[in-house]
Amino acid sequence: MPQANYLTSIFRNIRYGVFQSTLASYSLDAIKSHQKGLMQRGLPKQKPIVGVKDIVLVSSGKGGVGKSTIATNLAVGLKLEAPDKKIGLLDTDIFGPTIPLMMNLHDTPFLTDTNLMEPLVNYGVKCMSFGFLIEESSPIIWRGLMVMQALEKLMRQVNWGDIDYLVVDTPPGTGDTHLSLVQNLPINGVVLVTTPQSAALQVTKRGAVMYNMLKIPIIGLVENMSSVKCPNCSNEILIFGDGTKQLSEDLQVPILEKLPLNRTIADGGDKGVPVVLDANNGQSELYRHLAKKVVQFLASKENSKVIL
């Protein structure tokens, strides 16, 4: 009905005390159907990255939980566990790219004849980051549209070649970057990184709810900074508690690995030599075990990619 008549009808019903019955005539199913139609109208169609087989997001709701460190060691760990596979690492944190530092890559990518960027390579892993395209000390002071344009270049204008596993390091939160990745790419699974304290767990849970709503499989949780070893008695100290266990039960997803707060892990990231490469370091086995779990999950989902 015309808007003026509709409003007149509403006001009349309020006057006669039958406002609720008027709203009831507009069924909830009809409203949801209308909302769904509006949402679908603007959603892009998913399109695989040329040559890329499986895409794994490494995500965290909270910043500062070690997500990039885990993404880096996971990518290198996948190469160590499956040397015959081709591994890629994509850094989608436009404002705070750290993959160049952690992978010790500081050159500018070459362009192909078709204007595609060639990934930089170290430790057998092909890498792409917006950090390769800017000066190290240059801040990114951009609004959302420019960020989305940069993300589009990272998704579509890179000459990956053949990649079996592409690990995607995402920024913290559940914002535009995550939605763009999920809506544009066929994501095979997400690894959620958290620390055990409530502040991080609550935000991680929100992120998990988002991925569930978007029908993206959650591979599992990684509990980072799980504990610290006393230098005197070598006892493990749970500095943040054990709240990740409850989150795992609530989400019905496994805890893939518990990683300690360890100086050698941080040093590896600062020096651009992921700790997973050091076979004599006990932390290396933890990351390799994580890589095995991810490979097992992807193998089990070989023929069930999620299409929104």
UniProtKB/TrEMBL annotation:
Key words of the record: 4Fe-4S, ATP-binding, Iron, Iron-sulfur, Metal-binding, Nucleotide-binding
Keyword flag ATP-binding: yes
Matching InterPro entries: Mrp-like_CS (IPR000808), Mrp/NBP35_ATP-bd (IPR019591), NUBPL-like (IPR044304), P-loop_NTPase (IPR027417), YlxH/NBP35 (IPR033756)
Membrane-spanning segments: none
PROSITE patterns documented for this protein: MRP
CDD domains given in the database record: Mrp_NBP35
GO biological process: iron-sulfur cluster assembly; mitochondrial respiratory chain complex I assembly
UniProt GO molecular function: 4 iron, 4 sulfur cluster binding; ATP binding; ATP-dependent FeS chaperone activity; metal ion binding
Database matches in Pfam families: ParA (PF10609)
Keyword Iron-sulfur assigned: yes
GO cellular component: mitochondrion
Family designation: Belongs to the Mrp/NBP35 ATP-binding proteins family.
Protein name as annotated: Iron-sulfur protein NUBPL
Record organism: Dendroctonus ponderosae
